[in-house]
Amino acid sequence: MNxxxxxxxxxxxxxxYLIITDPARAADYVxxxxxxxxxxxxxxxxxxxxxxxxxx
Length: 56
Fold this sequence. Notes:
Layout: H1 3-21, H2 23-52
């Protein structure tokens, strides 16, 4: 097995452990992740709008 497969396996096991042992905390982590993705997408959209307007 290469290191990438091992890392993915460990990550999956950790996520499953987290969900099983503390579902409320797992839901909080998912919410935080989606908020981060949403904020990043908004920032990229704002940047593209700024570029489209000539950087003004």
